[in-house]
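Dear colleague,

Thank you for sharing your sequence with our group. We've completed the structure prediction you requested, and as agreed, I am returning the results in plain text so they can be pasted directly into your records. Please verify that the sequence below matches your submission; if there's any discrepancy, let me know and we will rerun it promptly.
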Amino acid sequence: MPPGPRILVLRFSSLGDVVLTTPLLRAIHARHPGAALTCVVGARFAELLATHPAVTRVVAVPPGEPVTALARRLASDAFDMGLDLQDSARSRRLRRRLGRQWGTVRRRRGARLLLIWLGRDRYGVHVPMAERYFGAARALDVAPDGRPAEVFPRPGDEEAAARLAPPGFVALAPGASRATKRWPPGHWRALAERLLAAGRNIVAVGGAAERPLLDLPGIVPAYGLPLLVTAALLRRARVVVANDSGMLHLATAVGRPVVALVGPTVRAFGFFPYAAQAEVLERPLACRPCSPFGSDHCPLGHHRCMIEIAPAAVHAAVERAA
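Please find the predicted structure tokens below.
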């Protein structure tokens, strides 16, 4: 096979964003089988791409590493072009230091602000973020294949997950990066009690710090696991219930049905479940959207977008999916 292009891909964070790069990585590999793909990604998420068959090398970026230090680490890498899927101040500084030809994702910041502040939708067609990434790779002549994101747990990850997983369980992921994207803990408890009363096994997943959000007798706690073990565990679930979070996208990447609980964000921003069996529960409030990524406090102080998603409605959605 003749050598293909040498491509440097930047996507530092976060969990869901990194997962959603994988349809593009797969498409590049299919169109250019000899391509050498080096992915520069936050160290917390590096394992997700390290096992991907399209990826040649992963450069893990520790928290707080200066751009100058990262540029020095990458300076000796020969690459033909770069894909900046982050388009942040940090990634732009890195691009300037490295030189070369770059394709950059279109973030649509102006359309986002118009929708938040004036309620005017200037997005036109609502393109999922996984497909917006393809705009950075126009020079590579690639297109989405309609398949979901993907991650590849190793045999050891699968074995660890098998030891934890009860039969036919429902996975609950109560965390999210920002407070306004989280369904209230009392609602999670009410849902768990309904599921347990109906005879369902439950596994709760997320970061170690999220355990206080849902920690009840009868629930298998699986917080703080390596991401690929969590992915292998989610693959065994009958259905996954999650906030608008990285765990939601990780569940879609292992092919599981999801029930998504969405509050301050909307479909136009591009982060609804991608190419997956999904039911999205949301409230049609005039104050939505208030933020593209969530925030620490509801701007109006009521958090109705999440509080008004009733546990009974979520339980019904779980039963439909399971």
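Summary note from our side: The domain at 6-140 is CATH 3.40.50.2000 (Rossmann fold).

Kind regards,
the structure core
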